[in-house]
Structure formats: C-alpha cells, structure tokens
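Form 7-S
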Amino acid sequence: MNNPITLFLLIILVTAVFFDLKNQKIPNWLTLGSLPIILVISFLSGGSAQLITSFLGAALAGFIWLFIWQLGLVGGGDQKLMMVVGASLGYQLVIPVTLVIAMVGGLQAIIFILIEKLKEPNKTLRDISKSLYIPYGLAIAAGVLLTLVLNNFHLIPQTLFLI
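Output:
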C-alpha cells in the first residue's frame, strides 16, 4: 500500500460519504475525476508495475460492481467509487474489500431498518425496506477502512485472491 494513494483515497471516501448522505448521490466529478489522478500517482510512486496493479484493480472492481449495480443493489456512483477503490488498493484486494463491504453493508442495512422500525413501530418491514434510503457510500468507506486495518495486520490472505 502506498501512502499518497491511501491518503488520497481517504479524502475521496470522506467526500463521497458526505455527498451520499446529503444528496443521495456520489458525483461523477469525484469518482471519474479521481481515477486518472490515482493512476498517475501509482505510476509516479511505483513505476509501471504499480500502474498495472492499479489499472487491473480498477478494471476488476468495475467489472464486479457493474453486476452488483445491474442487480439494483447499489447506485452507479457506488460502482464508480469502487473502481477508484480498486485502483487505490490494487487488484489483489478487490475481492477481499468487496466481501468486507458486503458484510458492513448488510450490518448497516439492519441498523437503518431497526432505527426506522423504532421510529414507526406500526410500519411493516416490507414498507420500511421499500421506502428507506441506505447510503452505500458509507458502507464502502467503512469496509475500505476495515480492509486496510485487516490488511495491515496481515489478516487477509491475498494469495487466495491473485488473478
């Protein structure tokens, strides 16, 4: 993991969460604008090998999250944000971070639904789930942070996820 890339990614994630909570949308200028910057930082900090790792990370994350988006489980901004995450973390961590984000997102959904149920006890869970907005940018940011911590302590077996 490269510190300039990690710092830039954290700034992007905080900004994405802000927009997702405020506007229920992660703007294209943030995701599509930051992707080439990350690729340049990758090249400058690690040469062509790091650039390839970042490019493959963006491509793999984009491919996986395109299907998740097509299923209607996340928005387009979330899918593009994951391309930025993939470019930042590299292809080796795309599958682990996706699994961690899925777990965090599930927990987030349960918490949001329970809070809504406490506010309106007469509403059915079906009605709550139909009308409730769950900002997945928050789950992505939390999942990335958790993945970075787990990876720092060597708790993610990267060899299982090599292409």
